[in-house]
Amino acid sequence: MDIDNLEDLAKELKNDENAHVITLFEEYAKTHNIDEEKLEQILSKEHDCFKCESCYKFYCYDEYSFFDEKCIYCCDVDADEEEEF
Predict the structure, then answer these.
(1) Which residues contact residue 72 at a Cβ distance below 8 angstroms, ignoring those fewer than 6 apart?
(2) Whose CA is closest to 43, among 31, 28, 65, 55?
(3) By C-alpha distance, which of 73, 53, 58, 63 is closest to 9?
(4) What is the pTM of this model?
(5) N or C: which end of the chain has fewer CB within 10 A?
(6) Phi, psi at 34, each rounded to 5°
(7) pLDDT digits (tens, 9 = 90+) for 40-62
């Protein structure tokens, strides 16, 4: 798939059907000579696209916890595991 701009990249990264989001993200950064951390910042600030540091998928603002830097789904799993002990 040819992705020409950051808006298209953000849409593809948040697409649940896309199983290779990290590869797509890394390839875009490499192709456009952008540091991956800088690319993450741009995507989050300008395109409502946040990378979960736990499952390495991308989510919109409503599905992301800034405090944990994880999606709400990973946060829920972590909370459930803590309650078991």
Answers:
(1) 59, 63, 64, 65
(2) 28
(3) 58
(4) 0.82
(5) C
(6) -120, 135
(7) 999 999 999 999 999 999 999 99
Which residue do the tokens 């808006």 mark? Answer: 7
- Tens of pLDDT along 9-30? 999 999 989 889 999 999 999 9
Q: Please state, in angstroms and as integers, the Cα–Cα distance from residue 67 to each residue in 35, 37, 53, 64, following that order.
A: 23, 18, 12, 9
Residue 54, token pair as written in the block: 């736990």
Average pLDDT across the chain, whole number? 89
The total of other beta-carbon atoms located within 10 Å of residue 8's CB is 14
Strand partners, 59: 50
What number of other Cβ atoms are within 10 A of residue 59's Cβ? 22
Strand locations in 1-85, DSSP E?
50-51, 58-59, 64-65, 70-71
- Inter-residue contact 18 to 63 (CB < 8 Å): no
How do residues 57-68 score in pLDDT, each as one tens digit?
Answer: 999 999 999 888
